[in-house]
Specification:
Layout: H1 10-33, H2 38-62, H3 68-77, H4 79-100
């Protein structure tokens, strides 16, 4: 399986993961610092984060990856960390899923 299995490109998925993480952290920092439009930044970051979560979660469910149940549970328990680590390990997980199934 190639990186083209995403409904969007692999590069776009990485951009969404990194972008949503940075905007969410910036919005959180802005909220704590008392910026004027902090709620807008945080809302945009969380909407982008949720849409990225749905894209990554659908990729986990759709593809044959190794140890799928672990990744699904991790997506619910630690979504931010799971998305980043899944993107790093995706190709390896796809190869292992093909080998052991």
């Amino acid at each position: 399986m190639d990186n083209q299995d995403f409904r969007i490109s692999y590069t776009t998925a990485w951009f969404l993961v990194v972008g949503s993480t940075l905007i969410t952290f910036l919005g959180s920092f802005a909220k704590f610092s008392g910026w004027e439009y902090s709620q807008v930044i945080l809302t945009i970051g969380l909407m982008l984060f949720f849409s990225t979560w749905v894209i990554i979660f659908s990729d986990i469910v759709k593809n044959k990856i190794y140890n799928r149940s672990f990744w699904v549970i991790t997506m619910f328990v630690m979504p931010l960390i799971a998305m980043v680590f899944y993107m790093f390990q995706r190709n390896k997980l796809l190869r292992l899923g093909q080998r052991f199934s």
